[in-house]
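> tool_call: predict_assembly(chains=three)
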Amino acid sequence: MADLSELVSLSAAEAARKIAVRELSATELCKAYLERIFEVDPHLGAYLTVTPDRVIKRATDIDIALDRGETLGPLAGVPIGLKDIFVTHGVVTTAGSKILEHWTPPYDGTAVERMNNAGAIALGKLNMDEFAMGSSNENSAFKPCRNPWDTTRVAGGSSGGSAAAVAAGLCAVALGTDTGGSIRQPAAMCGCVGIKPTYGRVSRYGVIAFASSLDQVGPLTRTVEDAALVLESLCGFDPLDSTSVNRPVPRYRDVLDKGVAGLTIGLPKEYFVDGTDPEVRAAVDAAVEVLRGAGADVTEVSLPHTEHALAAYYIIAPAEASSNLARYDGVRYGLRVPEGSGDASLLDMYRRTRGAGFGTEVKRRIMLGTYALRSGYYDAYYRKAQQVRALIKRDFDNAFERVDVILSPTSPTPAFTLGDKTDDPMAMYLADVFTLSCNLAGLPGMSVPCGRTSAGLPIGLQLLGKPLDEATLLQVAACYEREAAWPRAIAEVV
Amino acid sequence: MSWEAVIGLEVHVQLSTQSKAFSASATRFGQRPNSQTDPTVLGLPGALPVFNRDALEKAVCLGLATGCTIRRVSRFARKHYFYPDLPKGYQISQYDEPLCEHGAIEFFLDGEPHKVRLTRIHLEEDAGKNVHTGSVSLVDLNRAGIPLCEVVSEPDIRNAEEAAEYMRALHRLVRTLDICAGNMEQGHLRCDANVSIRPTGASELGTRTELKNINSFRFVQRAIDHEIARQIRIVEGGGQVVQETRLWDADAGASASMRSKEEAEDYRYFPDPDLPPLVVADELVDRIRGELPELPVQRSQRFAALGLGLDDACTLVAEPALADYFDAAVTAHGDGAAAKTIANWMLGELQSQLNRDDSTIAACKVTPAQLADLVKLIDGGTISGKIAKKVFIDMFASGDDADAIIERKGLKQISDPGAIEAVVAEVLAANRGQVADYRGGKTGLLGFFVGQVMKKTRGQANPKLVNEILRKLLAE
Amino acid sequence: MDALKPSEVEQIALLARLDLSEEETERLGRELTTILSYMGSLQQVDTTDVEPMTHAVPMDLRLRDDEEGASLSVDEALAHAPDTADDSFRVPHIINK
C-alpha cells in the first residue's frame, strides 16, 4: 500500500496507467485525496464544496467495471477538481458568489460531461474569485485561497483554488477558466502547468459566463503530459455552443517528444521591460537559454499595441460581464432580498438582491461595463476597444509570420501577499498585463513552471501560440520541462 | 384648425416554428406554466443560445414577400432591461444590422390601393408572460424564447382605419406565407403604435406617443382614434403632447401613461458575443423566393378580375384555406364566369352552415368539385336556386353529391312544358274568379298563380316556364 | 476626464439595478473615474478603417434544425425559485403602474 503522499503526487497520466493495469484502485486513490483535503485544505481554502459520497460511489463503480475487464476512458479513476464556475448537476455551484450560494444546477455543462465520460472523478468544486473577476482569489465571497508554498500569499486568480489544489496534492488535475489570464497566472504563482486553448476549442456550455468573447476552459496540471492528456478529452465541437470551433482534435500527446529543433521562439520586446521582478526576469531569461540550447531559434518580435491591451480588456470584459450578470435578479434562482414577494417593490427587490449578492469587485465591473455600453458612450468605449482589439490580433498575426511561439513571463511578479493589492483596483489589474492580450486575440496560451524565487515562490513561463496550435505550445513546453528538469514536488502546507 | 395624424406601427409576429428561437423547447400555446423551458430559456448560469434555421427562413420569406432587401450579413444584439418575464435581463434582438429593410405592405381600403412602407423587419426572441394579481406578479416562461419578426412601418399611415387595414393585410400575408398561424387570441400579432398629429399639410412631425397593448384589429382602430382625439384636445387646449408610452386598456376604452419604468431606459445594445454573424447565402434567398406562394394582393386582384367585388375577394384571401377552396371550385367548374356565383355560395350558404356548426372550411364535407357541380346544375336548369339551397344543406350534412341527393329526394326541376301546362290548367280551372280578375286588369295576380303552381309541384316547376305558360294560357 | 458626479454614479447604479450605500457610491465614483481615465488612452490609438473585433474567432452563425427537444420538468424549472405559486415564479408587483 503506497503511502498517502506518494499517491497524491502521481500525475494524472501515471495514476490512469496504474489504475488501468489494476496496480492501484480508483477508490484507494480517491480516499487518499479526500484524506489529504481534509487534512490540508483548512489551511488553504482551495475547495468550496467536497462531495465524498459521490466520489466513493463513482470510484467504486469504476473499479468494478475495470475489474470486469471493461475499457473505460483515458482518465478513468483520476481524481479532478472543478472550478466552481462549472455547472454540475446536483452539486452546488456558486461561481464564488453569495448570489448563487445555494444554487444546485439541473444540468451538467459540456466540459464536465466530457471529463465524466473520460472516467475522471470530480472530488468537489474549487474556490475562485467571484464570477472569475480577480487575480488573487481574494474576491471569493466565501474565503480567500492561499498559496500552498507560502500561505501568507495569494494563490493567484481567478482559478486560485484550481492551482492551489493541484500544487498541494488536493487533486491530480483541475479544470479552470481563463478570461484575462485566470488559468495561467495562478498556475504560475502556484508552480503548476496551466493551458488556455484557442477560443472556441472547448465548449463554454455550462460555464458560468463572465466575458463571453474572452472566456475559455482549460486544465491545470502537474506535468505537460497531463495537460495534453486532458485536452484530448476536453477539446472538440459542441452543438450547444454557437462559438464552438468545428475542427478535429489532434492526439496532443504525440508531440511531446518532438523537441524544439527547427522552431523559432519570439520574445516580444514590450513584455521584457522594467517593472518585472528581477528574479522573474532572470528565471525567464534562463529558460530562454535552455530552449536555445535544445535547438530553438530565438528572435525579438514586437507587439506594438501591447500598451493598450489593459485598457481594451477592462472595457470589453466588464461590458460583457455587466450583460452576463443581468440575469442574477432574484426571480428564478439564487439569492433574493427581501425573501418572498410581499414586502418590497420589484425595483427594490432587484436592487437589494444584487446589492447584497454581489461583492465589491463584481459591482465595480458591472458599473464600468454599464457605463461603457450606454448610448452616447458605446462608440468611444466599447466599439473603440473592439477596434484596438483587432489591432492587437493583427500584431500577433504579424509576429507569427516569423515565429512559431511567443515567450514571456506569465506574471510580472511572483505571488504577492494577501491584502497587498486589494485597496487599489488598478494595481490588481496591472498584474494581468502579460496574459490579457492572448484572450483579446483568442489565441492559445500556456504557463509552465520555470523555477523559484529565493523565497521559494514559483515562477511561470508563458508561451503563446497560433490559433488552434495548442500542439506546438505543448511541444515546446514538454521540451523545456524535460531539459530544465525542475523537481516535481507537492507543497507540504502542513 | 384641421389636423392630420401620422402613424407608424410596430407589429410583433410570432413565427410558427416547432421549437424556440435559441433552444429546442416546444412552442405550444396553453400548456401548463413553465413546462416548456430549458437552461437557455430560463437564463440559467452557463446556458448558451443556438439559432433556429426555420426562424431564419420564415423571416427571409416575409422579407421577400414585402419586397425588402435581405441583408446578407446581419447580427444579433442584446437589448438590456430588467423585467420578470425577461430571464436573461436582456432580449436577443437585432439593432443596427437587421435582417430585412425597405419593403412595403399593400392593401385596399374602400376600393383604393394603399402602400405602407416598411423601415425594417428583424428577428428577436419573445419574453414570457407576466400576470399581475394584486400585489404580486406570476411569471410563466413558456412563451419566452419563441421567435418573433418585428415589422416596423414608416409613419405612412394617416388614420385609424388605415392602421387597422394595414394590420389585416399583414395578418393575411403571414397566414398566406404560412409563417404565422395568425391566431389573434393567442397573441400571434401584437401591435405598438406610434401616433402624432400635425396641422394638415404641415411637413414637420409632432411629438409622438407610443401606444402599447393593442392586440386586435378592432382595438387598433379604437385605440388610435382615441389617441388622436386625445392629442387634438390637448393641443387645442393650449397644451403640449408629452412624449411617453401609454398602455391601452380595452375595458376602459382609454389609455394610461406608463411612467417611470420606461424613464431613462437605456437598452445598451451591443452585438451578442455568443452568436457569430448571421450569414444568409444567395442560394437560400433564391430558393425561398422561388417557393413564395401567390401573395394576397395579387390573389385578391386575380379574384376581382374573375368578377368578384374587391371586398369579397379580400374576404376570401384573408383565409388561405377559403381562397384555396375557391380556386379549386372554379377550376373544377371549368368556366370562369361561374366564379362570382361560386363566391356567393361560399360567402353565403357555406359560411352560414360553417358558422352554425362552429366549424372550419377544413372540416367541410362538401368538396370544391361538389360545389362546382351544384352551381352547374342550377345553371343547367336541373334545379332552381331555391331548391339548390335545400340540396346544399343536405350536401353539407352528408357529403353526398348534389346529383345523388336530387335523385334520392326527387327534387329535379320540372321542365317539361306539357307537364307544366297540365298543372297550370288545373290551377286556372280551380281559380276561375282570379282568372277573371286577372283578365280584367289585375295583372299582379300572376304571382298568386305562380305560387299555386309551385305549391302543386312542391317548388320543382321551372319558374321561367311556369311564367311563360301562365301568361300564354291567361292570355287566351 | 472629469470626475464622475454622484448623480451620474447613481444613474448607472439604477440602470444596473444595484443598491449602493453612500460610501460605496462615493468610492465607486472615485474608482471609476480613475479607471476610466486610464481607459481614455485608447482614444489616442489610430483605428481608422479598423473593423471592431466582436468575435475572437471568425466564423458564421451555425443554424440548428427546427426540432422539438427535451424540456426541463416544471419542478426542475421552479426548483430553486425563491418564491412560486401556481406553477409560476412569483415576484413583487411594480409599485408604479
